[in-house]
C-alpha cells in the first residue's frame, strides 16, 4: 500500500534563469533574506549546498523556544531543477534530534529563455497526523511561502 502524498505548494514565475535562482537557493546564508517566517537568523553552514546527504545548520528564533538551531538534511539536489531538505531539531531546541518529518522543496521549471516557474513545496507526507493538524495540514505556511517567493523574485531580478 502506498501512502498518499500530502503537500501544499505555491508557485511564482520569476524573470530570471533557473541557474541564477538555484544559486540563491543553494546558499544557506541567503535563506535569511528569503525567509518570511522571520525565524531564521543565520546560517552556520559555509558555502553552497552541492549534494544530497549534506547537512546545513541554521540559527533560528521562535518565542516559545528562544534561540536554537535546526540541522537541515538535504534530501533533493538536482542542479537548476530541484533542491530540498528535511529539518531536524538541533542545539538549543527543546527536543534535539527530533523531526516532524516535513520537507521543504523548491522545484524550478524553465519558462522561456530568461524566466522560471518556481514552486515551493511543504511536504507533510511523513508527518504524524497530530502535527499536520497543528499546522492546519500545512495551510498555515501558505502566506509565508508566497512571501518567500516574492523575496526570491526580488533577489533574482533587482540586479
Describe the model.
The protein is an alpha+beta fold. It has a single domain (7-157), classed as Alpha-D-Glucose-1,6-Bisphosphate, Chain A, domain 4, CATH 3.30.530. It has helices spanning 18-25, 28-34, 129-134, 142-157; strands at 7-14, 40-43, 55-62, 66-78, 82-89, 103-110, 116-123. A seven-stranded antiparallel sheet has the order 1-7-6-5-4-3-2, with helices on one face. A hairpin with a 5-residue loop joins strand 6 (103-110) and strand 7 (116-123). It is globular, with a radius of gyration of 15 Å. The model has no long low-confidence stretch (mean pLDDT 92).
Question: Quick gist of this model?
Answer:
By secondary structure, the chain is an alpha+beta fold. The chain has a single domain (7-157), classed as START domain (Alpha-D-Glucose-1,6-Bisphosphate, Chain A, domain 4, 2-Layer Sandwich), CATH 3.30.530. Helices cover 23% and strands 36% of the residues.
CATH superfamily: START domain
Helix-strand sequence: EHHEEEEEEHH
Mean pLDDT over all positions: 92
Strand adjacency order, main sheet: 1-7-6-5-4-3-2
- End-to-end separation: 49 Å
Notable traits:
alpha+beta; Alpha-D-Glucose-1,6-Bisphosphate, Chain A, domain 4; 159 residues; globular; 23% helix; 7-stranded antiparallel sheet; START-like_dom_sf
Task: Set down the secondary structure blueprint.
Elements: E1 7-14, H1 18-25, H2 28-34, E2 40-43, E3 55-62, E4 66-78, E5 82-89, E6 103-110, E7 116-123, H3 129-134, H4 142-157
Antiparallel strand pairs: 1-7, 2-3, 3-4, 4-5, 5-6, 6-7
Amino acid at each position: 500500500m502506498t501512502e498518499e502524498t500530502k503537500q501544499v505548494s505555491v508557485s511564482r514565475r520569476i524573470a530570471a534563469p533557473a541557474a541564477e535562482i538555484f544559486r540563491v537557493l543553494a546558499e544557506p546564508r541567503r535563506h535569511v533574506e528569503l525567509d518570511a517566517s522571520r525565524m531564521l537568523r543565520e546560517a552556520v553552514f559555509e558555502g553552497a549546498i552541492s549534494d544530497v546527504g549534506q547537512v546545513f545548520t541554521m540559527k533560528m528564533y521562535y518565542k516559545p523556544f528562544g534561540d536554537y538551531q535546526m540541522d537541515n538534511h538535504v534530501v533533493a539536489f538536482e542542479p537548476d531543477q530541484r533542491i530540498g531538505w528535511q529539518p531536524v531539531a538541533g542545539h538549543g531546541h527543546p527536543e534535539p534530534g527530533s523531526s516532524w518529518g516535513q520537507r521543504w522543496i523548491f522545484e524550478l521549471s524553465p519558462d522561456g529563455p530568461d524566466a522560471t516557474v518556481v514552486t515551493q513545496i511543504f511536504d507533510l507526507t511523513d508527518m504524524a497526523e497530530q502535527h499536520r493538524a497543528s499546522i492546519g495540514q500545512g495551510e498555515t505556511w501558505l502566506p509565508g511561502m508566497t512571501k518567500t517567493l516574492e523575496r526570491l523574485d526580488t533577489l533574482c531580478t533587482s540586479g
